[in-house]
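Need GntR family transcriptional regulator's 3D structure for a figure. Predict it.
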Amino acid sequence: MQNSTIELNQTEKPSSPAALPKLERQRLHDTVVEHLRNLIVEAVLMPGTKLNERELCETLGISRTPLREALKVLAAEGLIEISPNRGASVSKMTETEIWETFELMSGLEAMSGELACERITPVEVAEIKALHYAMLACKAQNDLPGYYSRNQAIHNKINEAARNSVLHQTYLGLNRRLQALRFKSNFRPEKWDSAAHDHDEMVKALEARDGKRLAAILRQHLLDKRDAVLNVPVSPGTDEPVAGKTNNQ
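Structure prediction for GntR family transcriptional regulator:
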């Protein structure tokens, strides 16, 4: 593996405790996977970043064995790429891949919403409403990571309420590849405001058990995220595009 350094978002330094805290030994494998996944989703580890095992082990306070196990899991999820000659790096999707993946995800979300309205329980609706209000509270505090985690919990619960195991597994696998991009889609205030408004409408449609309406909202919600990703920089305050041009625009 090349002896390259970890490229981090300028707002998050390797020495920052909030960005890279030492990890506890309990359930180390799952903890490392979750921690690295969050660093990728929140753009601390940027697309295309080459991962230096020695530096990651030192900053996270772990040995190479759990790190390598975690990298294999993230590679299976499509979040990183492992090359025998070049080592591991954070995956970087082309614009065509982004376009097509969001397009497919919009259909999966729409189906989840329609089926959920037929099968969801009152308790599950109440749980989603509670998450929605918690999500809005995070937005009011400009807490994007907190907002995003509750946002994803809402989408996951709608998918789970569809009661379709094949749909659920397909959704989970595809969504892992899009998590970092969905997080970035709210970097601009107007896009964040629009996404929050969509969630207001989702809750109303879910309460009314209006499957057609919820499906339409979810489909457009994902397509709007796609368009936001393809028209915004990789990170706030930069002019670096997400990827090259696509013929789909």
